[in-house]
Prior knowledge:
single chain, mainly alpha
Amino acid sequence: MLQLENITLFLIILPIVSFLYASVGHGGASGYLALMALFSFAPETMKSTALLLNLFVAGISFFYYYKAGFFNRKLFVSFAITSIPFAFLGGMLDVDASIYKKILAVLLIFSILKMLNVFGKENTKIKDVKLWQSLLIGSVIGFFSGLIGIGGGIILTPIILLFHWGKMKEAAAVSALFIWVNSASGLIGQFTSGVTFDSNVFILITIAIIGAIFGSYYGSKKINNKRLRHILAFVLIIACAKLVLT
Length: 246
Protein backbone atom coordinates (compact mmCIF):
# COMPACT_ATOMS: atom_id res chain seq x y z
CA MET A 1 0.00 0.00 0.00
CA LEU A 2 1.30 3.43 -0.93
CA GLN A 3 2.05 6.04 1.70
CA LEU A 4 -0.23 9.10 1.67
CA GLU A 5 2.47 11.44 0.33
CA ASN A 6 3.23 8.97 -2.48
CA ILE A 7 -0.44 8.74 -3.42
CA THR A 8 -0.60 12.54 -3.61
CA LEU A 9 2.45 12.67 -5.88
CA PHE A 10 1.01 9.93 -8.10
CA LEU A 11 -2.27 11.84 -8.47
CA ILE A 12 -0.36 15.01 -9.37
CA ILE A 13 1.68 13.31 -12.09
CA LEU A 14 -1.21 11.29 -13.57
CA PRO A 15 -3.06 14.18 -15.33
CA ILE A 16 0.26 15.44 -16.73
CA VAL A 17 0.84 12.03 -18.29
CA SER A 18 -2.69 11.88 -19.74
CA PHE A 19 -2.29 15.46 -21.06
CA LEU A 20 0.92 14.67 -22.94
CA TYR A 21 -0.25 11.36 -24.37
CA ALA A 22 -3.63 12.74 -25.41
CA SER A 23 -1.89 15.65 -27.14
CA VAL A 24 -0.32 13.16 -29.59
CA GLY A 25 -3.46 11.01 -29.96
CA HIS A 26 -2.58 8.29 -27.45
CA GLY A 27 -4.41 6.84 -24.46
CA GLY A 28 -1.34 6.87 -22.22
CA ALA A 29 -1.32 3.26 -21.02
CA SER A 30 2.45 2.95 -21.33
CA GLY A 31 2.79 6.10 -19.22
CA TYR A 32 0.30 4.89 -16.60
CA LEU A 33 2.05 1.53 -16.43
CA ALA A 34 5.40 3.26 -16.01
CA LEU A 35 4.00 5.41 -13.19
CA MET A 36 2.44 2.42 -11.47
CA ALA A 37 5.75 0.58 -11.75
CA LEU A 38 7.58 3.53 -10.20
CA PHE A 39 5.09 3.65 -7.34
CA SER A 40 5.22 -0.14 -6.83
CA PHE A 41 1.65 -1.03 -7.78
CA ALA A 42 0.84 -4.74 -7.79
CA PRO A 43 1.41 -6.16 -11.32
CA GLU A 44 -2.01 -7.87 -11.28
CA THR A 45 -3.77 -4.50 -10.99
CA MET A 46 -1.61 -2.54 -13.43
CA LYS A 47 -2.85 -4.15 -16.62
CA SER A 48 -6.59 -3.69 -16.09
CA THR A 49 -6.21 -0.18 -14.63
CA ALA A 50 -4.13 1.02 -17.59
CA LEU A 51 -6.63 -0.37 -20.12
CA LEU A 52 -9.55 1.26 -18.31
CA LEU A 53 -7.84 4.66 -18.24
CA ASN A 54 -7.02 4.15 -21.91
CA LEU A 55 -10.70 3.86 -22.79
CA PHE A 56 -11.50 7.29 -21.46
CA VAL A 57 -8.36 9.16 -22.52
CA ALA A 58 -8.14 7.65 -26.02
CA GLY A 59 -11.87 8.24 -26.52
CA ILE A 60 -11.50 11.93 -25.72
CA SER A 61 -8.38 12.20 -27.86
CA PHE A 62 -10.13 10.59 -30.84
CA PHE A 63 -13.10 12.97 -30.50
CA TYR A 64 -10.90 16.05 -30.84
CA TYR A 65 -8.78 14.70 -33.69
CA TYR A 66 -11.86 13.42 -35.53
CA LYS A 67 -13.55 16.78 -35.08
CA ALA A 68 -10.47 18.46 -36.55
CA GLY A 69 -10.81 16.26 -39.67
CA PHE A 70 -7.72 14.08 -39.33
CA PHE A 71 -9.33 10.60 -39.18
CA ASN A 72 -8.59 8.13 -42.02
CA ARG A 73 -11.27 5.44 -41.75
CA LYS A 74 -9.70 3.09 -44.30
CA LEU A 75 -6.31 3.15 -42.59
CA PHE A 76 -7.89 2.45 -39.21
CA VAL A 77 -9.99 -0.50 -40.41
CA SER A 78 -7.02 -2.14 -42.13
CA PHE A 79 -5.23 -2.50 -38.78
CA ALA A 80 -8.23 -2.99 -36.49
CA ILE A 81 -9.63 -6.06 -38.28
CA THR A 82 -7.07 -8.36 -36.69
CA SER A 83 -6.03 -6.27 -33.68
CA ILE A 84 -9.43 -6.50 -31.95
CA PRO A 85 -9.68 -10.32 -31.70
CA PHE A 86 -6.00 -10.67 -30.83
CA ALA A 87 -6.30 -8.01 -28.10
CA PHE A 88 -9.16 -10.08 -26.64
CA LEU A 89 -6.96 -13.18 -26.72
CA GLY A 90 -4.07 -11.36 -25.06
CA GLY A 91 -6.40 -9.97 -22.40
CA MET A 92 -7.46 -13.48 -21.41
CA LEU A 93 -3.90 -14.59 -20.71
CA ASP A 94 -1.91 -14.14 -17.52
CA VAL A 95 1.84 -13.72 -17.65
CA ASP A 96 4.39 -14.14 -14.88
CA ALA A 97 5.13 -10.85 -13.09
CA SER A 98 8.86 -10.89 -13.91
CA ILE A 99 8.23 -11.61 -17.60
CA TYR A 100 5.49 -8.99 -17.65
CA LYS A 101 7.91 -6.32 -16.38
CA LYS A 102 10.53 -7.19 -18.99
CA ILE A 103 8.06 -7.07 -21.89
CA LEU A 104 6.67 -3.77 -20.59
CA ALA A 105 10.20 -2.34 -20.36
CA VAL A 106 10.80 -3.17 -24.04
CA LEU A 107 7.49 -1.62 -25.11
CA LEU A 108 8.26 1.52 -23.09
CA ILE A 109 11.16 2.15 -25.46
CA PHE A 110 8.62 2.94 -28.20
CA SER A 111 6.97 5.43 -25.88
CA ILE A 112 10.30 7.07 -25.05
CA LEU A 113 11.25 7.38 -28.72
CA LYS A 114 7.85 8.87 -29.52
CA MET A 115 8.11 11.45 -26.74
CA LEU A 116 11.57 12.40 -28.02
CA ASN A 117 9.97 12.86 -31.47
CA VAL A 118 12.25 10.32 -33.13
CA PHE A 119 9.33 9.27 -35.33
CA GLY A 120 7.92 12.77 -35.67
CA LYS A 121 8.98 13.54 -39.24
CA GLU A 122 6.27 13.62 -41.88
CA ASN A 123 6.63 12.70 -45.53
CA THR A 124 4.67 14.45 -48.26
CA LYS A 125 4.46 11.25 -50.31
CA ILE A 126 1.92 8.99 -48.60
CA LYS A 127 1.86 5.30 -49.56
CA ASP A 128 -0.98 2.79 -49.34
CA VAL A 129 -0.52 0.02 -46.80
CA LYS A 130 -0.79 -3.47 -48.25
CA LEU A 131 -3.51 -5.68 -46.75
CA TRP A 132 -1.12 -8.42 -45.60
CA GLN A 133 1.02 -5.80 -43.87
CA SER A 134 -1.87 -4.24 -41.95
CA LEU A 135 -3.34 -7.62 -40.96
CA LEU A 136 0.00 -8.90 -39.67
CA ILE A 137 0.91 -5.69 -37.82
CA GLY A 138 -2.59 -5.36 -36.38
CA SER A 139 -2.60 -8.91 -35.00
CA VAL A 140 0.85 -8.59 -33.35
CA ILE A 141 0.15 -5.19 -31.80
CA GLY A 142 -3.33 -6.29 -30.73
CA PHE A 143 -2.04 -9.38 -28.94
CA PHE A 144 0.60 -7.51 -26.95
CA SER A 145 -1.91 -4.73 -26.25
CA GLY A 146 -4.21 -7.15 -24.45
CA LEU A 147 -1.38 -9.13 -22.85
CA ILE A 148 0.47 -6.14 -21.33
CA GLY A 149 -2.35 -3.61 -20.92
CA ILE A 150 -1.59 -1.01 -23.59
CA GLY A 151 -3.72 0.17 -26.48
CA GLY A 152 -0.99 -0.27 -29.06
CA GLY A 153 -1.01 3.27 -30.42
CA ILE A 154 2.47 3.95 -29.12
CA ILE A 155 3.66 1.22 -31.51
CA LEU A 156 1.26 1.85 -34.40
CA THR A 157 1.98 5.59 -34.73
CA PRO A 158 5.75 5.17 -35.30
CA ILE A 159 5.05 2.39 -37.82
CA ILE A 160 2.60 4.56 -39.79
CA LEU A 161 5.09 7.42 -39.89
CA LEU A 162 8.09 5.21 -40.60
CA PHE A 163 6.49 3.58 -43.66
CA HIS A 164 4.78 6.82 -44.79
CA TRP A 165 1.25 5.41 -44.55
CA GLY A 166 -0.12 8.65 -43.10
CA LYS A 167 0.80 12.10 -41.80
CA MET A 168 1.38 12.88 -38.14
CA LYS A 169 -2.10 14.17 -37.26
CA GLU A 170 -3.69 11.41 -39.32
CA ALA A 171 -1.62 8.81 -37.49
CA ALA A 172 -2.68 10.35 -34.18
CA ALA A 173 -6.38 10.14 -35.06
CA VAL A 174 -6.12 6.54 -36.31
CA SER A 175 -4.06 5.50 -33.28
CA ALA A 176 -6.53 7.07 -30.84
CA LEU A 177 -9.43 4.92 -32.08
CA PHE A 178 -7.10 1.93 -32.50
CA ILE A 179 -6.18 2.28 -28.83
CA TRP A 180 -9.83 2.53 -27.81
CA VAL A 181 -10.99 -0.64 -29.58
CA ASN A 182 -7.97 -2.65 -28.44
CA SER A 183 -8.37 -1.48 -24.84
CA ALA A 184 -12.06 -2.41 -24.89
CA SER A 185 -11.31 -5.81 -26.41
CA GLY A 186 -8.49 -6.46 -23.94
CA LEU A 187 -10.71 -5.51 -21.00
CA ILE A 188 -13.48 -7.81 -22.17
CA GLY A 189 -10.92 -10.60 -22.37
CA GLN A 190 -9.86 -9.84 -18.79
CA PHE A 191 -13.45 -9.76 -17.55
CA THR A 192 -13.96 -13.28 -18.90
CA SER A 193 -11.01 -14.28 -16.70
CA GLY A 194 -12.65 -12.82 -13.60
CA VAL A 195 -10.83 -9.47 -13.32
CA THR A 196 -12.58 -6.85 -11.16
CA PHE A 197 -11.87 -3.20 -10.28
CA ASP A 198 -11.45 -1.39 -6.99
CA SER A 199 -13.93 1.48 -6.51
CA ASN A 200 -10.97 3.88 -6.12
CA VAL A 201 -10.20 3.49 -9.82
CA PHE A 202 -12.90 6.08 -10.58
CA ILE A 203 -10.76 8.71 -8.88
CA LEU A 204 -7.94 7.90 -11.29
CA ILE A 205 -10.35 8.03 -14.23
CA THR A 206 -11.62 11.48 -13.26
CA ILE A 207 -8.12 12.90 -12.88
CA ALA A 208 -6.91 11.34 -16.13
CA ILE A 209 -9.93 12.72 -18.02
CA ILE A 210 -9.08 16.28 -16.93
CA GLY A 211 -5.59 15.99 -18.40
CA ALA A 212 -6.92 14.29 -21.54
CA ILE A 213 -9.43 17.03 -22.35
CA PHE A 214 -6.78 19.75 -22.29
CA GLY A 215 -4.16 17.59 -24.01
CA SER A 216 -6.45 16.52 -26.86
CA TYR A 217 -7.67 20.05 -27.46
CA TYR A 218 -4.24 21.63 -27.54
CA GLY A 219 -2.66 18.70 -29.38
CA SER A 220 -5.20 18.90 -32.21
CA LYS A 221 -4.41 22.64 -32.41
CA LYS A 222 -0.69 21.91 -33.00
CA ILE A 223 0.67 23.01 -29.65
CA ASN A 224 4.35 22.32 -29.05
CA ASN A 225 4.98 20.46 -25.79
CA LYS A 226 8.63 19.66 -26.55
CA ARG A 227 10.04 20.38 -23.08
CA LEU A 228 7.23 18.56 -21.28
CA ARG A 229 7.65 15.54 -23.54
CA HIS A 230 11.35 15.44 -22.74
CA ILE A 231 10.53 15.43 -19.03
CA LEU A 232 8.07 12.58 -19.53
CA ALA A 233 10.65 10.68 -21.58
CA PHE A 234 13.07 10.99 -18.65
CA VAL A 235 10.42 9.58 -16.28
CA LEU A 236 9.77 6.71 -18.68
CA ILE A 237 13.50 5.93 -18.84
CA ILE A 238 13.62 5.68 -15.04
CA ALA A 239 10.57 3.41 -15.02
CA CYS A 240 12.08 1.27 -17.77
CA ALA A 241 15.30 0.86 -15.78
CA LYS A 242 13.37 -0.09 -12.65
CA LEU A 243 11.38 -2.72 -14.52
CA VAL A 244 14.55 -4.30 -15.89
CA LEU A 245 16.46 -4.26 -12.60
CA THR A 246 13.64 -5.51 -10.29
